[in-house]
Amino acid sequence: MSAFAHVPLASYRRYPESEMAARAAAFYADIKRRRTVREFSSEPVPRIVIEDAIRAAGTAPSGANQQPWFFAVASDPAVKARIRALAEEEEREFYARRASEEWLEALAPLGTDDRKPFLEIAPVLIAIFQQSWGIGPNGDKIKHYYAPDSVGIATGFLIAALHHAGLATLTHTPSPMGFLNEIFGRPPNEKPFVLLVAGYPADGVKVPAITKKPLAQIMDWR
């Protein structure tokens, strides 16, 4: 395999330390407003916003720059209704049979159950697929390295980009999610990673009164 050409890092910007601190604080102040919501408005969102957010996700770092992700977007009511029907079928099995009592106890404070009306109400659903392997220019199979890590980072970029644009999101992971391959016509080398619900929050929506761990509990500096 030929090596990548290397070019000067023309896009990097260095800021004065005071500006760096201000930018870091401003980003934290903005991102800490982000909350997962489970009640969405049906109001449509501009397609360009979703596309640019996905473009941003596509800039995420990945193992060997293999970019092992694919983003399938559903806004058609019929497609969303089908996703909801199949997701709720899996969720009923999860809550009734698959989930352990410990898992259900952990979920109980959030008030979740097998009903997922947001899958039809929200204007946009983004199915994020992880590619375990790719196809080379000669049709040969290429193993993807660090695919889960890479797709997880890209998903984080996407959530942050949508929040930055003014939209709310919900990460939804019905298990198993193989029905998403069928709905979107995705190949067998792709595995659904997460179903991201995006849109405006419903008027008067309420969220759990939760807190995040303080810095002292999530960082060790030596």
Structure, explained:
The chain is an alpha+beta fold and 222 residues long. It has 8 helices and 6 strands. It is 40% helix and 16% strand. The strands form 2 sheets. The protein has a 4-stranded antiparallel β-sheet with strand order 1-2-6-5. It has a two-stranded antiparallel sheet with strand order 3-4.
State the main characteristics.
alpha+beta; 222 residues; two-stranded antiparallel sheet
Structure, briefly:
This protein is α+β, with helices and mostly antiparallel strands. The protein is 40% helix and 16% strand.
Gap between N and C termini: 40 Å
Radius of gyration: 20 Å
Category from helices, strands and their pairing: alpha+beta
Please state the average pLDDT score. 94
- The shape is globular
Could you tell me the number of beta strands? Answer: 6
**In this structure, how is the largest beta sheet organized?**
4 strands, antiparallel
Q: β content, as a range?
A: 15-25%
Number of DSSP helical runs: 8
Q: What order do the strands of the largest sheet run in, or round the barrel if closed?
A: 1-2-6-5
